[in-house]
């Protein structure tokens, strides 16, 4: 389809005035990326084609490697409005080229035809013929980069990522959703595309094409062509074989990875979508689009999109995304509706926020285990995002397009290769000049000159470096550490800071019940070890009922903390019958003491029914349940959560005066403390109101019940590993979601903070209304209760005590981190340099911490158990997951052993691999330069090494040494010294320089020395290219020994690798290579000498001279490398001298550390004595940025007062609800429900439970608010007739057992 201005438009039609001409370099720029537009230029295109011809296709090959260069050469910059192609530069400074497509809303492709340009057209006529497709609402302009679609936004006048319904929509919008028509869905599908995370398996031909055209392979092909032309058939054929094998293995591994990923990711199923009202249609999941209303099957399913739950509850396994296999309860999205008495309800209603409302969102990739709703009602959800825009899609994109590893060694290796090309260019000129002077044939000149380039630039270098990584990966696998990113092993050798999660990483995965501390007359009672022996009361009931446990496949499952708490009570939990029949009863979950033996016709008075649950929220730091005891006239609220939050919500008179001291008594010893509270709800509050009420209306004025003390034991391996890392000068940081006091205790227990070091707690409070300054507090942690270690002195020695230790560590919470990051981001760099404990940190904040540490120059490792650590694991240079869940696919390393012993293991292996890489690089570079020198010397007389000599050096010596050299394992100890990272440093450059000086000296000496011998016969140039001569033999033998010497010299051992004597393969290789070289040198057979084309020296003594010279060469080479290059003192002096002479920059963290040490006034620590619990409670009490829902001023009393006048109408829904006071219970029940149904009748039989509302003549609809895993509300509509015979809808509020 071609569109453009018509003839009528050109003549007399009135067209909107065109937009002002944009600047030629207009672009769209955000914090993370930059998009620039380009349009085709004909004359540039023709010049580019001419360049293809002139360069014989080399320019086109360069454009294949760097496509952005092709765009810059063939196109001219233009405004994004008129762009035909775009170049996107991402945050890693990588460039991506994409073509801009234009389609109609119906999916028809469009080609925009620009008006013809006329030379003599006046300006006014030109203005009236401009057509602007970007302003046409019927067209969609887009491009796709890295599986993400960017669409044109006319208002922003730029391209933005296509998003679903996850932003900019009110909560009530989703509850009003009734589904899309087929026509609307089809139109949206043209915009969003198919709902599938497609991982294409690249065809073999395409992969071969890519591999063959890679720069490394192209250079190898160039080298092989030169060698074949030079009749160097054997080695060229060997390189062909190795290169072909390498390409085949690469293609096979790529295809295997793509197939495995596709089989893991790609799924398709049939889903039921709502087409409006009660009409449902089954379609393929690939056809889903944002806005579709889908039904979640009762038997569960795999989620293939991100969707928000609008009715019912679901039990979900999110291990694919979080690594945590604990079932998670997803409840209905709150439906605030219009606020009563509010003039502008939309101002008070919040937008959907995936972070804040994650408890109501079913994420793609998770598995729905079960759903819960009443009767035949459907569990429905609104599709938010599809395809690669989903949470699972983002994870797959991070795997397909990983963040490029920015490693100094790799970056500098390119500079060094460029230097070798420069050396080759010098040799090229030298050869051309020399051979032209000797009047050689032009073909020979070209061949010899190009051959010199293949010698100076080693084609085998990447393969040799890869061998060391393969051996390291195999050694890690033997240690139980699996690596999916082998390139990251070398980076692990640079790690100088490691972040650790606490729970499950430093401490044991599970908890142990330590005891319960109750309250009596506002005073703490002694600790009770066995909770089951406590007398019945609110505290015991709270432990038995305030949880999110459920029964799946006859097994009690849920949060480990909830399981331990409930099992300590020795109560039992009852849920009705089989899973598929739970929808047909309005039965709450029941908990009761195990001692009460129920008959079929009797219930014990200790039974408690859970009728509503407010799930745990990390932002609120609490969860609560509403329950009703058997025979009670009112409901009760039980709350559990962090001690700071619970005391803030409790009545002051119910909290003991020594609360902080009691809390610190346990937290400072590393115990995990949970607080419990209780509140009897008014009897006036019936069941309907319970299901409509918001948690902030009831979670206040609580009665404090006591503390639940659990023990989270430190793993026995944690403290030794932390000490080992600290002794190696590797920073250790704790980043946890747990309580600060507990984290501080664990930090001291595991030796992360030394006994004599001070801890400064940093607290930041957001600006108050009308102010812009942040309030900061620096307070010393109260260490008065720290145990004192006894130190004994013998003899006359004195003990000096550092009373004013200047060593300190920062400790801060996630809330402080958020405030500082928002208002004072420049302060973060100072805090992370001295920060050791980061508590109450969310998943995103953990990743932010890793990134800030990287920004100040640290190479950061992260070790976590996979739960909530995925972001940090992906962001770190070295991410180690201790979980084998599917989320570990995002982590480069996964340890089968669930403790942190793997961390020093990976660091040591990384250091060994990095040292090996340096050794291999220097060895291959010196090999190339050594052979380059040999060839240059022989070129002087018109000779060269023979093909057999080349083969002996390249294949027998270099290839074998390149393999066996890398088999040396890591050193057993982790030392303070760190391996080199830069190839451009003084040490590597001096090492290569000094070794090459020795190489040149020895070869030059032997070349001239052989000419002085009385039996010497000089080489005569000949047309047969017969290079057998004494000069050739002298240079060959001298260099052959040097290749062995260099392998021994660069095979360094401690402190990063084991001794060379531990590498038996390398020792055998040295012995065999040295023996073969001595044999060829001293007394070769005639056949061997003829094969190698070696001219033997007549006297035996002169042959032995080469062994003596080689021995002296070895001694000098070894001494220089060992005592000069590797001398730490000398190296440091050179570094300081170079720092004075040349502008060198230290790492940012070193500068910050120096600034802190020089400034005694910072941080401004408060000298007053403060209890940490008071500090944390103060921060909890500060009103931060709240959601609009939490700003509601409606109180529980307002709700009850309002309901008295409106007969039970839910205040927050803004709609009338008709409640049938006599629900139908005539349905026959299965025998398994007999006992539970009696409990149901007892719990729900009170007259205050259900109260009829005034009959309405119009149909009323109500939406379910947040449901509970224990019980969920629904509406059962039945038809009845009013006095006039008109059929109206009656809504019966019921409760059904769910998870």
TrEMBL record:
Per the UniProt entry, what are the Gene Ontology biological process annotations, in alphabetical order? Answer: intracellular calcium ion homeostasis
The subcellular localization recorded is:
Late endosome membrane; Membrane
Keyword Nucleus found: no
Record field: transmembrane: 45-66, 232-252, 413-432, 452-471, 920-942, 948-968, 980-1008, 1034-1051, 1063-1082, 1102-1125
Q: Which UniProt keywords apply?
A: ATP-binding, Endosome, Magnesium, Membrane, Metal-binding, Nucleotide-binding, Phosphoprotein, Translocase, Transmembrane, Transmembrane helix
Q: What reaction does this enzyme carry out catalytically?
A: ATP + H2O = ADP + phosphate + H(+)
The way this protein sits in the membrane is described as: Multi-pass membrane protein
Q: Low complexity bias: where?
A: 1244-1278, 1289-1299
Protein family membership: Belongs to the cation transport ATPase (P-type) (TC 3.A.3) family. Type V subfamily.
NCBIfam families hit by this protein? ATPase_P-type (TIGR01494), P-ATPase-V (TIGR01657)
What protein name is recorded for this chain?
Cation-transporting ATPase
Which organism does this record belong to?
Elysia crispata (lettuce slug)
């Amino acid at each position: 389809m071609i569109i453009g201005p018509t003839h009528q438009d050109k003549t007399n039609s009135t067209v909107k005035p065109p937009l002002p001409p944009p600047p030629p370099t207009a672009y769209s720029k955000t914090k993370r990326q930059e998009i620039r537009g380009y349009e085709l230029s004909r004359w540039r295109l023709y010049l580019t084609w001419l360049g293809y011809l002139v360069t014989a296709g080399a320019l086109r090959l360069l454009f294949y490697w760097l496509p952005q260069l092709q765009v810059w050469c063939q196109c001219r910059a233009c405004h994004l409005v008129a762009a035909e192609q775009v170049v996107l530069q991402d945050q890693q400074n990588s460039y991506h080229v994409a073509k801009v497509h234009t389609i109609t809303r119906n999916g028809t492709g469009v080609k925009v035809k620009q008006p013809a340009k006329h030379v003599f057209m006046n300006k006014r006529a030109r203005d009236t013929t401009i057509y602007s497709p970007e302003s046409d609402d019927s067209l969609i302009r887009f491009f796709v980069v890295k599986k993400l679609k960017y669409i044109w936004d006319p208002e922003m006048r730029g391209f933005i990522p296509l998003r679903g319904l996850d932003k900019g929509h009110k909560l009530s919008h989703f509850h009003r959703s009734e589904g899309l028509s087929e026509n609307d869905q089809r139109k949206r599908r043209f915009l969003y595309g198919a709902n599938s995370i497609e991982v294409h398996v690249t065809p073999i031909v395409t992969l071969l094409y890519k591999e063959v055209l890679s720069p490394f392979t192209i250079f190898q092909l160039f080298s092989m062509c030169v060698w074949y032309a030079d009749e160097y058939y054997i080695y060229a054929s060997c390189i062909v074989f190795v290169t072909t094998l390498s390409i085949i293995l690469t293609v096979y591994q790529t295809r295997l990875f793509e197939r495995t990923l596709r089989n893991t990711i790609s799924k398709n199923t049939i889903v039921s979508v709502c087409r409006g009202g009660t009409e449902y249609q089954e379609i393929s999941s690939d056809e889903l689009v944002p806005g579709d209303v889908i039904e979640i099957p009762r038997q569960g399913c795999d989620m293939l999109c991100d969707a928000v739950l609008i009715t019912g509850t679901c039990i979900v396994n999110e291990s694919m995304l979080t690594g945590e296999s604990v079932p998670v309860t997803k409840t209905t999205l709150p439906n605030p509706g219009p606020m009563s008495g509010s003039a502008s309800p939309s101002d008070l209603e919040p937008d959907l926020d995936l972070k804040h409302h994650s408890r109501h969102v079913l994420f793609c990739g998770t598995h729905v285990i079960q759903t819960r709703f009443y009767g035949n009602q459907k569990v429905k959800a609104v599709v938010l995002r599809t395809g690669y825009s989903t949470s699972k899609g983002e994870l797959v994109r991070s795997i397909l397009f990983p963040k490029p590893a920015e490693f100094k060694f790799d970056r500098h290796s390119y500079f060094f290769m460029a230097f070798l090309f420069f050396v080759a260019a010098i040799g090229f000129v030298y050869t051309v000049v020399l051979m032209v002077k000797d009047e050689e044939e032009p073909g020979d000149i070209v061949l010899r000159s190009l051959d010199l380039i293949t010698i100076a630039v080693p084609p085998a270098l990447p393969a040799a470096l890869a061998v060391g990584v393969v051996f390291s990966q195999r050694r890690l696998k033997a240690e139980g550490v699996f690596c999916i990113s082998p390139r990251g092993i070398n980076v692990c050798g640079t790690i100088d800071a490691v972040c650790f999660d606490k729970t499950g990483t430093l401490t044991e995965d599970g908890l142990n019940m330590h005891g319960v501390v109750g309250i009596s007359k506002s005073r703490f009672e002694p600790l009770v070890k066995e909770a089951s022996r406590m007398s019945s009361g609110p505290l015991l009931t709270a432990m038995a009922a305030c949880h999110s446990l459920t029964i799946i496949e006859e097994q009690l499952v849920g949060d480990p903390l909830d399981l331990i708490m409930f099992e300590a009570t020795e109560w039992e939990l009852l849920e009705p019958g089989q899973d598929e029949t739970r929808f047909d009863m309005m039965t709450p979950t029941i908990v009761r003491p195990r001692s009460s033996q129920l008959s079929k016709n009797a219930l014990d008075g200790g039974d408690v029914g859970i009728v509503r649950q407010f799930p745990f929220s990390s932002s609120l730091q609490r969860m609560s349940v509403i329950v009703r005891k058997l025979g009670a006239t009112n409901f009760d609220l039980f709350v559990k959560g962090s001690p700071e939050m619970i005391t803030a919500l409790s009545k002051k008179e119910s909290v003991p005066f020594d609360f902080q001291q009691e809390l610190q008594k346990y937290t400072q010893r590393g115990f995990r403390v949970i607080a419990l509270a209780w509140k009897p709800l008014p009897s006036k509050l019936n069941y309907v109101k319970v299901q409509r009420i918001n948690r902030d209306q009831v979670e206040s004025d609580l009665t404090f019940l006591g503390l639940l003390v659990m023990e989270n034991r430190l793993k026995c391996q944690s403290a030794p590993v932390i000490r080992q890392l600290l002794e190696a000068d590797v920073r250790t940081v704790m980043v946890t979601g747990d309580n600060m006091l507990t984290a501080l205790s664990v930090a001291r227990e595991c030796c992360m903070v030394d006994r004599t070091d001070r801890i400064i707690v940093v607290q930041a409070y957001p600006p108050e209304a009308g102010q812009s300054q942040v309030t900061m507090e620096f307070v010393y942690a109260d260490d008065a209760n720290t145990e004192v270690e006894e130190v004994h002195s013998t003899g006359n020695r004195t003990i000096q005590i550092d009373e004013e230790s200047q060593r300190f560590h920062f400790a801060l919470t996630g809330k402080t981190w958020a405030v500082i990051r928002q208002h004072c981001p420049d302060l973060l760099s100072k805090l992370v340099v001295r920060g050791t404990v980061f508590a109450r940190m969310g998943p995103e904040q953990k990743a932010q911490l890793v990134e800030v540490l990287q920004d100040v120059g640290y190479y950061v490792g992260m070790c976590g158990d996979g739960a909530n650590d995925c972001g940090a694991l992906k962001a770190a240079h070295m991410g180690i997951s201790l979980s084998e869940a599917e989320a570990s696919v995002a982590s480069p390393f996964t340890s089968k052993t669930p403790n942190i012993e793997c961390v020093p293991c990976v660091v040591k292996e990384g250091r060994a691999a990095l040292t090996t890489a340096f050794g291999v690089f220097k060895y291959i570079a010196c090999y190339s330069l050594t052979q380059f020198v040999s060839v240059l010397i022989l070129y002087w007389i018109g000779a060269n090494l023979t093909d057999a000599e080349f083969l002996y050096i390249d294949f027998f010596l270099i290839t074998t040494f390149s393999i066996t050299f890398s088999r040396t394992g890591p050193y057993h100890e982790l030392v303070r010294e760190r391996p080199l990272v830069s190839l451009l440093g003084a040490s590597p450059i001096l090492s290569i320089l000094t070794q090459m000086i020795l190489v040149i000296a020895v070869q030059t000496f032997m070349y001239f020395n052989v000419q002085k011998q009385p039996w010497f016969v000089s080489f005569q140039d000949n047309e047969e290219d017969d290079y057998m001569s004494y000069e050739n033999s002298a240079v060959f033998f001298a260099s052959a020994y040097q290749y062995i010497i260099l392998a021994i010299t660069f095979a360094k051992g401690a402190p990063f690798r084991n001794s060379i004597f531990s590498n038996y393969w390398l020792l055998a290789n040295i012995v065999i290579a040295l023996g073969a070289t001595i044999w060829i040198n001293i007394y070769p057979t005639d056949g061997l000498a003829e094969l190698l084309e070696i001219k033997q020296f007549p006297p035996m003594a002169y042959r032995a001279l080469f062994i003596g010279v080689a021995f002296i060469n070895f001694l000098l080479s070894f001494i220089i490398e060992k005592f000069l290059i590797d001398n730490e003192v000398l190296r440091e002096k050179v570094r300081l001298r170079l720092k004075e002479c040349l502008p060198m920059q230290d790492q940012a963290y070193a500068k910050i550390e120096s600034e802190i040490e020089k400034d005694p006034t910072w941080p401004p620590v408060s000298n007053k004595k403060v209890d940490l619990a008071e500090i944390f409670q103060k921060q909890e009490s500060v009103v931060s940025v709240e959601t609009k829902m939490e700003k509601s001023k409606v109180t529980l009393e307002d709700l009850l007062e309002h309901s008295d006048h409106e007969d039970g109408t839910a205040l927050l829904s803004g709609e009338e609800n008709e409640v049938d006071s006599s629900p139908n219970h005539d349905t026959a029940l299965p025998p398994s429900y007999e006992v539970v149904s009696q409990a149901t009748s007892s719990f729900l039989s009170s007259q205050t439970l259900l109260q009829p509302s005034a009959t309405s003549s119009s149909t009323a609809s109500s939406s379910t608010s947040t449901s509970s895993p224990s019980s969920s509300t629904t509406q059962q509509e039945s038809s009845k007739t009013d006095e006039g015979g008109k059929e109206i809808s009656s809504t019966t509020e019921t409760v059904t057992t769910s998870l």
